[in-house]
Each structure stands twice: as structure tokens, then as C-alpha cells.
Amino acid sequence: QVQLVESGGGLVQAGGSLRLSCAASGRTSSIYVMGWFRQAPGKEREFVAVIRWNGSRTYYADSVKGRFTIARDNAKTTVYLQMNSLNGEDTAVYYCATAPAWGRPWISGQYDYWGQGTQVTVSS
């Protein structure tokens, strides 16, 4: 099993930045990709970004491209989501998740382990 713990969420003003972290533990050798998803109140969970575990490939949702950056700390089993130029539409609970293959990484169903989520609130 893989355990995931997110951190770094909080309240930020529009235009500001936050960096989320997702620390993985347990059977990390089974991880091929780590993705970030988010879910706003009353909305379905949506894909944000994904990184291949070795850091060689990334992919972003159009809504965050150019504003968010996903990266992995090679010295640690931690993936970061740097979020810049935040706006109200970014308000959501953010989840990290892992999958054993690249596949179609924008589809939440292919992820097998999920963190508990961290709240991001952007005030105007």
C-alpha cells in the first residue's frame, strides 16, 4: 500500500501563490505517476496536473497551464504543486493520488491511492 499526505493548503488572496506538497510512503516502488486533482463544492473532481515518478514527463489541465508547476524532489518521495496567479476558480480541496501506469492520467479512475486532501481557498 501507499500512503499519501498532502500539506500546504490555506487561504490566499487572488493573485497570490501557494505550494502544495504530497509526501508518499509505504510501497513507493509501485508508483509510476503522481497526479493532483481538485474538487470544488458542488462540482466533480477534476484533473489538475500529473508527473511521471521519475520526473521525466508532466501534463497539465488547460485551466492551470502556465500558472501551476508540478515537480518532484528526487531526494524525497515528495511531489510539489506550485500554484501561482491564483483566482477564485482555484478554490477547492486538492488531492494527490498515485497510479501504476501513465495511461490517461486525467482520469481519476485509474488512480489507486489517494491522500486526504488539503483545502485551498482564494479570496477576492
Explain what this protein looks like in three dimensions.
This protein has no helices and 11 strands. A hairpin with a 6-residue loop joins strand 4 and strand 5 (46-52). The chain is globular and about 40 Å long. With 124 residues, the protein is mostly beta strands. Helix content is 0%, strand content 52%. The strands form 2 sheets. Strands 2, 4, 5, 6, 9, 10 and 11 form a 7-stranded mixed beta sheet that branches. The protein has strands spanning 2-7, 10-13, 18-26, 33-39, 46-52, 58-60, 68-73, 78-83, 92-99, 113-114, 118-123.
Average pLDDT, all residues: 96
**Tally of individual helices:** 0
Outline, from the CA principal axes?
A: globular
In terms of structural class, how would the helical and strand content be classed? Answer: mainly beta
Report how far apart the termini are.
40 Å
Helix and strand run: EEEEEEEEEEE
Can you give the helix content as a percent range? under 10%
How would you summarize this macromolecular structure in one to three sentences?
With about 120 residues, this protein is mainly beta.
Q: How are the elements arranged and paired?
A:
Elements: E1 2-7, E2 10-13, E3 18-26, E4 33-39, E5 46-52, E6 58-60, E7 68-73, E8 78-83, E9 92-99, E10 113-114, E11 118-123
Parallel strand pairs: 2-11
Antiparallel strand pairs: 1-3, 3-8, 4-5, 4-9, 5-6, 7-8, 9-10, 9-11
